[in-house]
Amino acid sequence: xxxxxxxxxxxxxxxxxxxxxxxxxxxxxxxxxxxxxxxxxxxxxxxxxxxxxxxxxxxxxxxxxxxxxxxxxxxxxxxxxxxxxxxxxxxxxxxxxxxxxxxxxxxxxxxxxxxxxxxxxxxxxxxxxxxxxxxxxxxxxxxxxxxxxxxxxxxxxxxxxxxxxxxxxxxxxxxxxxxxxxxxxxxxxxxxxxxxxxxxxxxxxxxxxxxxxxxxxxxxxxxxxxxxxxxxxxxxxxxxx
Length: 241
Ligand SMILES: [Zn+2]
Hints:
Bound molecules: zinc ion
Number of strands: 8
CATH class: Alpha Beta
């Protein structure tokens, strides 16, 4: 065999080795967005999959926007098709407990069980466990962060909220979201709020017009090198605890 052919074969062998195994039909990744070079923002949707998740996914797809969904185990169980679609279309999914108790008022055993059963429910549907935890109400303390560490997950909070659950008004949700949008921001929204899903085409268009790339939380935290149990963004007063 000539030297040239054998080195070509060696390259081919490397390519085959590096090709990802298609364990689950995940969206083909385009060139990743580099949030150090461009303005990034992560929209996050809690408590779902909500009943309007299908419409929301259509909107995200149409505008080439990615999002992060912090899911409740109980709804993963009742609406698994949405979870499959989220993953297939390149969004990130995270754990948001099974039934949404306040972790800061829960026994350690309850917290572990809420996280564990949700991980299991998600794995049953998409074949892998999520790597991000957002505790219900975004409430965390040292115990919550320690338990997140046991599950090898950082705790992801948000930089600002859309107040959508409170206003339930399309114009107010749009106005609030635009007011709190900032580079590398993580915004809290809910896909069970119909008005949020209704407002989303206009919100995405306005954000993209302002130069934002709508990315997943993974893209935002990439360069922060978070460890299991870390809380991000660090809430005010956290170090005092
Ligand atoms: Zn929630």
